[in-house]
Automatic annotation (TrEMBL):
This is N4-(Beta-N-acetylglucosaminyl)-L-asparaginase. GO terms for cellular component: cytoplasm. Keywords: Autocatalytic cleavage, Hydrolase, Protease. Substrate binds at R178, V179, G180, D181, T201, G202, L203, G204. The active site is at T150 (nucleophile). GO terms for biological process: proteolysis. It comes from Clostridium amylolyticum. The lineage of its organism: Bacteria, Bacillati, Bacillota, Clostridia, Eubacteriales.
């Protein structure tokens, strides 16, 4: 069996490429890397890689991670600037004996030495978003920190290797140096080839509080189906946060076990995700949480059309 699951519609083209690798007996790590690079390279996705929205100093700082569920190799970068493909740097770091999670300048120095492609990741479009947001925040007293869509993926290959990967520009308008859940093992991602893997998107500060990706894998190890595991973990964390803190941030999780069965749960409206396996071509779904149960519906052609139209629509500076 092979399979892939990923957060958000934006992963569709990447999952399509990754699945081709898996179909031909390729490694789950190659599938994830090619899939995430595809998302990083597409300038109209404003929360991952090139075109990602900047921090409050108008700098694009990126987080990414790679975990091998067979060897437990983990590599991650946080708050890295000016490199095209943070996922590839994270994968490279996962092969090191130590120094597996590097931040900021240290991560950049490593990437430079290893010959990774340097790139100015701040696009003209992202600058317009930044200037508009600064204006809106002033005029409408809005919170600056909205707009976030991390790409998180889990892949399974025919040799039963499982990999998890993440890549994100984090929260729009975050403080310089802020690190979210995405490069943090157990929170933004976790995978064990003997069980399955999970990955998160949403408010990093809250996702971290539940070590939620690890929690889902733990529940799968106890025998829960990925769908049940995702629902239990998301509902519990959402509830605990509301009890203890009066509110819960966005929590959306995807998971797949080592049989290619999958699950998704969210506490928001309109979470989209992409799944493919041996029996199913890459498909975009939308999910809704109704009283703790998530109902998945295949995205309509109209929804898919409007998605790309709004992402690529011309943007004017206010
Ligand atoms: C973060 N979890 O940095 C990321 C942002 C994100 O969907 O997922 N967004 O907190």
């Amino acid at each position: 069996m092979y399979g892939m699951i990923a957060t958000w519609r934006m992963a569709f083209e990447g999952v399509t490429k990754g699945t081709e690798i898996l179909k031909h007996g390729g490694h789950a790590g190659d599938a994830i890397e090619i899939a995430i690079k595809e998302v990083e390279n597409f300038e109209f996705y404003k929360s991952v890689g090139y075109g990602g929205l900047p921090n409050e100093d108008m700098e694009v700082e990126l987080d990414a991670a790679y975990m091998d569920g067979t060897t437990f190799d983990i590599g991650a970068v946080a708050a890295i600037k000016d490199f095209a493909n943070p996922i590839s740097i994270a994968r490279r770091l996962s092969k090191e004996e130590v120094n597996n999670l590097l931040v900021g300048e240290g991560a950049e120095k490593f990437a430079h030495k290893e010959g990774f492609e340097r790139k100015n990741m701040l696009t003209e479009r992202a600058k317009i978003h930044y200037h508009n947001r600064v204006k809106e925040v002033k005029e409408l007293q809005l919170k600056p920190y909205s707009g976030h869509d991390t790409v998180g993926m889990v892949s399974l290959d025919v040799n039963e290797n499982m990999i998890a990967g993440t890549s994100t520009s984090g929260l729009f308008m975050k403080k310089k140096g802020r690190v979210g859940d995405s490069p943090i093992c157990g929170s933004g991602f976790y995978v064990d080839s003997k069980v399955g893997g999970a990955s998160a998107t949403g408010l990093g500060e809250d996702l971290i509080k539940g070590c939620i990706s690890y929690e889902i894998v733990r529940l799968m190890k106890e025998g829960h189906h990925p769908q049940e595991a995702c629902e239990i973990a998301v509902n519990n964390l959402d509830e605990e946060l509301k009890i203890r803190r009066g509110k819960a941030g966005d929590l959306s999780l995807i998971a797949m076990n080592n049989k290619g069965e999958w699950g998704v749960s969210t506490n928001i409206e309109g979470f989209s995700f992409v799944v493919a396996n041996q029996f199913q071509e890459p498909t975009v779904y939308l999910t809704k949480n109704i009283n703790g149960k998530c109902i998945h519906e295949e995205a309509s052609q109209e929804w898919l059309y409007n998605y790309m139209k709004t992402r690529t629509a011309p943007l004017v500076r206010k």
